[in-house]
Amino acid sequence: MRQIVLARRPVGVPVVEDFRLEETAMPELGDGELLVRMRVGSVDPAIRGFLDDRPSYIEPVAIDAPIKGMSLGEVVASRNADYPEGTLVRAFATWSDHYVLSDQSWGIEKVQPQPGADLHHYMGALGPVGLTAWVGLFTIGEAKPGETVVVSAAAGATGSTVGQIAKAVGCNVIGLVGSEEKAQVIRDLGFDAAIDYRATPDIAAEIAKAAPDGVDVFFDNVGGETLEAVLPLMRLHGRVAVCGMIGQYNDADHPFGVKTLWQLVVNRIKMQGFITFDYPEVLAQAQAELDGWVAEGKLRPLANLRDGFESLPEAFIDLMSGRTIGKTLVRI
What we know:
By secondary structure, the chain is α/β, with parallel strands linked by helices. The protein has helices at residues 46-50, 128-140, 157-168, 180-188, 203-210, 224-230, 246-249, 263-266, 280-296, 312-320; strands at residues 2-6, 19-23, 33-43, 68-78, 88-94, 98-102, 109-110, 148-151, 172-177, 193-196, 215-220, 234-242, 270-273, 303-307, 327-331.
């Protein structure tokens, strides 16, 4: 089987020399295990954190070990009656074109695509991306119809999904992006306002214009200066769902010091980080609602597609360089 392994730890934005393609023997199955052939590889900003030798919610990737990440695949051999050959599953796995899972593997779920839905969307807006958006917006952010929601990295995989499902339930949605091209993308998706932070000297002033009565929910994918700008604009009892801090992933040794955290006390703001699979009790409801919104045309999955197992590193580098729109996926 083929694997993409970590050749060296990246410094700043990853480059191709940080990765290496290798071949190794196909693994043997133990009792209860299943051999899965990768069909869709997920390329996520969080992977960047796994490549540094520092504590995270996932053990760092070791040098010469395969990169870790979410994957959707097909069971091609099984010693587990609950997962017969042909079953489609997604789980946290590795960048290997075949890998071994068990029913105890983190995040493992059976995937049952709806008629007419492309399989790759079940690693995007109909998969981990959509579930993350749903959990962050509703379980953590407690968004309600009529409230104002601000989303950072709004043209990205999770941000574009958050904005659309917030609109689907009747929220006013403001998206923060890094180019006019991305601003037009989210306008076309139905966002009420799009703010290009690179084109304005005062992002807080622009958000205040779009949300004169304040912000109820901030879905944050960026952290740093963006978080600092939004906190003073939050309404009383506002909620901040901290999904990620992509603004710091390429330079985690020099984190930005947010100076407006006092606003958490001033306006009694709830600010909470989250991992989607900490909330298994809501995932069935989330999946059903996501499927429904896609069927109704209220959720348009954005996918930045690549083809071929060997293209995973290049796709990841483009993502971490800010060159992508929507969910970056590699079809195998």
